[in-house]
Amino acid sequence: MFAALLDKIVAHSPRGRRALGWLRGHRKTRRALIIGLCHVIGAWTSVHAVLHVRTSQGAIAWVVSLNTFPYIAVPAYWVFGRSNFAGYVSLRRHNKAELNDAERKVAHDLFAMRPAPADEPAAAALLEKLAKLPATRGNHTELLIDGEATFRSIFAAIQEAHDYVLVQFYILHDDGLGQRLKEALIARQREGIRCYVLYDEIGSHDLPKSYVNELRAAGVDIRSFNTRKGDANRFQINFRNHRKIVIVDGRTAFVGGHNVGDEYLGKDPKIGPWRDTHVKVQGPVVLCVQIAWLEDWNWATGDRPALNWTPVASNGEDGIAFCLPSGPADEFETCTLFFLHAIASAKKRVWIASPYFVPDEQFISVLQLAALRGVDVRILVPEHADNQLVYLSGFTFLPELEKAGVQTWRYQAGFLHEKAILVDDYCGIGTANFDNRSFRLNFEITLLFSEPATVQAVESMFATDFARSRRATAADFTDRSWGFRFAARLSRLMAPVQ
């Protein structure tokens, strides 16, 4: 690659062509010049890494590799190295600068639905500063455990739509469940219900064009998130839109861990039973979810469809709910700060379920501190991860966590994919994993609840999952072979890109 680049550079002038002819006759000199050029580019790129990589550990790793192995590290850096989503930030600022009267009214109406100060969750002030969205009262919540319950409820809501259906998934497969979703949307579109579908092109890399074309032919507006939109993002495939959202008429929303694929119904024989959790919400918090969807849609398409923006309390319900979108276009590391605050402020318990548990040092420390304070800290992970690096890395955390009193549980009854957290008297269900990708690189969304009935339902769900799990100990790592421990430690070095 670099040799071809050198040929193009020097071949544009007679002097360059003479030099090129001479170099072709002196292969060792040419090789040395190419190697030198690679290292110059690597050194220049390492300056960019020092200035722009968010963490010192990441910057050090990139600088060392860019100057040692620039032939591999330079293209890898420009694909995987950035932590800020160019373009999305400026689009968000532009949209805020051009808020119309209707949008200002939406903001006013949402903040008018805030609970009384005495009823607000303890973290409400912090979360509102991070998300720029308020906690709201008047919400109804329904916990949806596993795929059959989740998609039964989603399809029923789509069937009851009166105006529009908004769909967003990280993974969209053309299989049995994908076909059911396609047929449901086409049927509703033909009945005059506006249907919009947004999917991540990396997560849905195997989605055939025929699937997309069939939806478009029926009038459904389906788009990819378009991660590489804009010149600055042309080679950037490291950011992902990991959100899973369905919204009906601005009145009902679904958020959680399920994507669209038969494996999420437990029908993949290689994976087996699939343990996951979604949540259905009704009330003002739906409009907060809709704001997150609209920002993503606006980035992907440049369009902002007419939607319902009138907040309405759910009949007979007064639950407090909060929507926390997060992503690489945020001013702060929203997802990181939320989890750090949740763990650091816990007084009684912190229960976390995540299929990808790959914490960095700051999270190891805050989990240890919580356990040492006497907080009941439990981590629930799958027995067998679907990512070998994650699986191996997970063993290395056991000794560090166990000595502080943190419990690790491994789910036995299938593959655990849910993303849930229970802290004292509030809980959260969303799309964020406990890893660097969700904390810094993915667009995620989490719904938080302090309503006692919802907290009790999540507590019962955790209790059932713990009963189907085994307690992992430090010996699971320390008693393994030297080769396994080395492979696990080596995998942990790759934690930032897992």
Characteristic key phrases:
498 residues; alpha/beta; Endonuclease, Chain A; 16-stranded mixed beta sheet; two-stranded parallel sheet; transferase
Please describe what this structure looks like.
Keywords: Cell membrane, Lipid biosynthesis, Lipid metabolism, Membrane, Phospholipid biosynthesis, Phospholipid metabolism, Repeat, Transferase, Transmembrane, Transmembrane helix. Its main location: membrane. The protein has 498 residues and is of the alpha/beta class. It folds into three domains: 2-80, no CATH class; 88-116 and 136-318, Endonuclease Chain A (Endonuclease, Chain A, 2-Layer Sandwich); 334-497, Endonuclease Chain A (Endonuclease, Chain A, 2-Layer Sandwich), CATH 3.30.870. The protein has 20 helices and 20 strands. It has helices at residues 2-10, 14-24, 27-52, 56-68, 70-80, 88-97, 101-112, 124-131, 147-159, 176-190, 209-217, 285-301, 334-345, 361-372, 388-396, 398-402, 436-441, 452-467, 475-478, 482-493; strands at 136-145, 164-169, 194-199, 221-224, 240-241, 245-248, 252-256, 274-275, 277-282, 319-326, 349-353, 357-358, 376-382, 407-411, 415-416, 420-423, 426-430, 434-435, 442-449, 469-472. The strands form three sheets. The chain has a 16-stranded mixed β-sheet that branches. It is globular, with a radius of gyration of 25 Å.
